[in-house]
TrEMBL record:
Belongs to the thioesterase PaaI family. This is Hotdog fold thioesterase. Pfam families: 4HBT (PF03061). Keywords: Hydrolase. InterPro entries: HotDog_dom_sf (IPR029069), PAAI_dom (IPR003736), Thioestr_dom (IPR006683). The keyword Magnesium does not apply. It comes from Falsiroseomonas algicola. Gene3D superfamilies: Hotdog Thioesterase. GO terms for molecular function: 1,4-dihydroxy-2-naphthoyl-CoA thioesterase activity. GO terms for cellular component: cytosol. Residues 51-129 form the Thioesterase domain.
């Protein structure tokens, strides 16, 4: 059985995100594969901490953005996903001027809860952050 129940394209998702926090930070969905949502985010004045490195909070926003999109894409019309908990382990610094890439994959896609893991990598491929998002599946429609 296919993972995705909604046939959204990266272009549709990015257009829908206009005016949101993720768009303000430059987050873009770049690809949707059979089992993952891929994205990217620049490390610039919007996403860096005062010492010129990627801010941990920006990494968490990237993770929650991709995980929320992925979670909702697994659900039929009439259901949505809302975040319950997100955590992140920051493993390597990323200097300003780079673009980080991220891959979000499911760890658990249950009827009531889901868990998504996002790996965020530097331009050289080194793992910069690993984050997990837990969502609750609730009744509702995508606004």
């Amino acid at each position: 059985m296919a993972l995705w129940k909604r046939d959204w394209t990266p272009e549709q998702i990015n257009e829908r995100s206009a005016g949101s926090l993720s768009a303000h930070l430059g987050i873009r969905v770049t690809r949707i594969t059979e089992d993952a949502v891929h994205g990217e985010m620049p490390v610039d004045h919007r996403t860096a901490q005062p010492f010129g490195l990627l801010h941990g909070g920006a990494s968490v926003v990237l993770s929650e953005t991709l995980g929320s999109i992925a979670s909702i894409m697994t659900l039929p019309d009439g259901q949505i996903a809302v975040g319950l908990e997100v955590n992140a382990n920051h493993l390597a610094g990323v200097p300003k001027g780079q673009i980080v890439t991220a891959i979000c994959r499911p760890l658990h896609t249950g009827r009531r809860t889901q868990v998504w893991q996002t790996e965020i990598r530097r331009a050289d491929g080194k793992l910069a952050c690993v984050s997990r998002l837990t969502t609750a599946v609730v009744e509702g429609d995508v606004a």
